[in-house]
Amino acid sequence: MAELADNHRKKTRPNYLYAIVSVAMVLFLLGFFGLILLQAQRLITVFKERVNLLVELQEGTPREDIAVLQERLNKSPYIKEGSVEFISREQAAELMREDFGEDFLKLDLPNPFYDVITFNVKARYMERDSLSGIRLALLERSYINDVFYQESLVDDIARNVSRIGYIALGIGLFFILVAVTLIHNTIRLALYSNRFLIKNMELVGASWSFISRPYLWRAVGQGLVSGLLAITALTGLLYWAQRDLPELDVMQAPYQLLMLFGGLLILGIVITTASTYYVVNKYLKMRVNDLY
């Protein structure tokens, strides 16, 4: 008899592992989107400050003039610190040879490259007017042929920044709706196998609060575990992202990060508990025949 009861409990035990993992995945997606929102401005700054400007120098420019220009650029308020770099025409040819193979420049032709100085500007100067002013100021030096930068890229960045807010709001609302729906359906499927046990407890005289209490406490634990799993995965993602993008210093806003992680924990607990409460009460309200 005891063996039959144990078998019955095993058959009616909900798949809580599946529910925990499913909720954790949904919370991870929400957290990932939250990180994008928190770091949106920082990401824009990083991409802006990665746009290279090239100063093409005339052939035969004295090294003294090049050194003076580098020093002045390094002291300029619009230059990103540590970004000024001199590339000689020989280095440029070697870089192209590495990219395109030994056959590049295999013919005995003169080196077509110029000595150049590359640098990046700070994000607030990545505007058409500011870059145009920087270019004109540099062209006043007689040994500079021209200053090049991707004007189309600058325009695209400026144009797309204004769209991010509206897109983020729409995606955020969509993610929240999807998260609530998926988590609720996961909890409902997890408790489906216990619907007869819930109803039988009511039929023998147990109160609704007595029946719901263990399920609600279990839901709190599931939400907590799911939230911790999601936070662990997000922490690993942040570590990986910052390794490849060192400029993306996520610890510049630790309070915002803590608020996001705390929000995920609370959201996981609230949604799993509310869904569990709704599903348990739904089964309690149903007639026995409707459970089949």
Quaternary class: single chain
Q: What sequence of helices (H) and strands (E) makes up the elements? A: HHEHEHEHEHHHH
Low-confidence stretches: 1-13
Proportion of residues in helical segments: 55-70%
Count of individual domains:
2
Task: Give the number of DSSP strands.
Answer: 4
The N- and C-terminal alpha carbons lie at a distance of 25 Å
Which overall shape is indicated by the principal axes computed on the Cα atoms? rod-shaped
Defining key terms:
292 residues; mainly alpha; Alpha-Beta Plaits; 4 strands; 69% helix; rod-shaped
Overview of the molecule:
With 292 residues, the chain is mainly α. The chain folds into two domains: 2-46 and 161-291, no CATH class; 52-149, Alpha-Beta Plaits, CATH 3.30.70.3040. It contains nine helices and four strands; from the N terminus they run H-H-E-H-E-H-E-H-E-H-H-H-H. The chain has helices at 2-12, 16-48, 63-75, 89-100, 128-139, 151-192, 195-203, 208-244, 254-285; strands at 53-57, 85-87, 116-119, 144-148. A four-stranded antiparallel beta sheet has the order 2-3-1-4. Helix 8 (208-244) packs antiparallel against helix 9 (254-285). The protein starts with a helix and ends in a 7-residue tail after the last helix. The relative contact order is 0.16.
Topology readout:
Blueprint: H1 2-12, H2 16-48, E1 53-57, H3 63-75, E2 85-87, H4 89-100, E3 116-119, H5 128-139, E4 144-148, H6 151-192, H7 195-203, H8 208-244, H9 254-285
Antiparallel strand pairs: 1-3, 1-4, 2-3
Helix pairs in contact: 2-6, 2-8, 2-9, 6-9, 8-9
